[in-house]
């Protein structure tokens, strides 16, 4: 069923759809550079970024690479819950800088320490490089908090591809005892790389993120046509167990990824996992990057996260 979009997004989508149509008309092909630049333009719609008393860039250093991170705390002398953040962007786009306003809101509203991870992106670093970086950050995050007080519980959060990383790590935690996750927060997550959910058809055009672009993202990410590899990597088809972390999930009614997010929430619930699901029916994929246009919906999302974090 096709979603019905909020009137707040009408003008934004009219312009976006006009630009998409013009690009198709001129046969402009997707490239990492073009898509990264386009996503970064949404930064102009997040003008509200709260000040925090502690924001510091740090680095996790490995033998073959380093992983940049940004640490936020609204009160570094108070022991607060830890939220490890993996940004969205189709495994190809997005950055700590683009998501800086979101991480500031998370830290301020949810009163938590936020660690934002600059993981490697495809196509330069295909699957599973980005997951490997986030896994390392999850196992070693305490090394980043030597000058910040924090509580021992760990929650992971991600939107879109970041949600895919969260759910992939949660799936891996069932067999790898080095990975400890107390809770996961998923915002319009990508959990099915096989592209079989019905909303990919019903919501696949006209709502900013289009199914053709999702497929292109995944082609760059996997650089493989092996259906078994792609299905194995999809958390929706992974092992479901009551041992998976407590989950807060948000879906958007006009999102091509809507149905896989709902299916994942139902599968977790059936497995005995505690799940809280909120649907923003008039919203599109990436609505959290459109803060100035849909501020009420963004603030409600942050408030649900704050309430969830308060129970950790």
Structural class designation:
alpha/beta
The number of E-state strands comes to 8
CATH superfamily: Alpha/Beta hydrolase fold, catalytic domain
CATH class identity: Alpha Beta
CATH topology: Rossmann fold
| Stretches with pLDDT under 50, minimum 5 residues | none
What percentage of the residues does DSSP assign to strands (E)? 15-25%
Average pLDDT over all residues: 97
**Sequence of secondary-structure elements:** HHEEEHEHEHEHHHEHEH
Major sheet size, sense and barrel closure: 8 strands, mixed
Protein name: Alpha/beta hydrolase fold-3 domain-containing protein
InterPro entries: AB_hydrolase_3, AB_hydrolase_fold, GDXG_lipolytic_enzyme
Organism: Shewanella ulleungensis
Keywords: Hydrolase
SSE layout:
Layout: H1 10-25, H2 32-41, E1 54-61, E2 66-73, E3 80-86, H3 100-110, E4 113-117, H4 129-140, E5 150-159, H5 161-173, E6 183-187, H6 199-202, H7 211-222, H8 227-232, E7 246-252, H9 258-271, E8 275-280, H10 295-309
């Amino acid at each position: 069923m096709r979603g019905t979009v909020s009137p707040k997004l009408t003008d934004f989508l009219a312009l976006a759809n006009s630009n998409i149509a013009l690009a198709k008309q001129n046969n402009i092909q997707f490239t990492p550079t073009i898509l990264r630049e386009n996503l970064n333009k949404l930064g102009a719609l997040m003008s509200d970024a709260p000040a925090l008393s502690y924001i510091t860039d740090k680095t996790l250093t490995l033998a073959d690479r380093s992983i940049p991170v940004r640490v936020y705390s609204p009160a570094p002398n108070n022991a607060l819950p830890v939220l490890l953040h993996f940004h969205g962007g189709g495994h190809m786009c997005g950055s700590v800088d683009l998501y800086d306003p979101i991480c500031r809101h998370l830290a301020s509203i949810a009163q938590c320490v936020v660690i934002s991870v600059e993981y490697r992106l495809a196509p330069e670093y295909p699957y599973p490089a980005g997951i490997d970086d986030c896994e390392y950050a999850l196992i070693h995050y305490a090394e980043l908090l030597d000058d910040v007080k924090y509580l021992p519980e760990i929650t992971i959060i991600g939107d879109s591809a970041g949600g895919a990383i969260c759910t992939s790590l949660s799936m891996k935690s069932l067999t790898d005892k080095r990975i400890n996750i107390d809770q996961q927060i998923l915002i319009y997550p990508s959990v099915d790389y096989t592209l079989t959910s019905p909303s990919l058809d019903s919501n696949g055009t006209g709502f900013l993120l289009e199914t053709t672009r999702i497929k292109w993202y995944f082609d760059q990410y996997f650089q493989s046509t092996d259906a078994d590899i792609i299905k194995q990597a999809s958390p929706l088809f992974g092992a479901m167990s009551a041992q998976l972390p407590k989950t807060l999930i948000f879906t958007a009614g006009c999102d091509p990824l809507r149905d896989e997010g709902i299916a994942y929430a139902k599968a977790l619930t059936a497995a005995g996992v505690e799940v809280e699901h909120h649907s923003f029916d008039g919203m599109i994929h990436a609505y959290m990057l459109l803060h100035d246009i849909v501020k009420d919906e963004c603030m409600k999302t942050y408030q649900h996260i704050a309430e969830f974090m308060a129970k950790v």
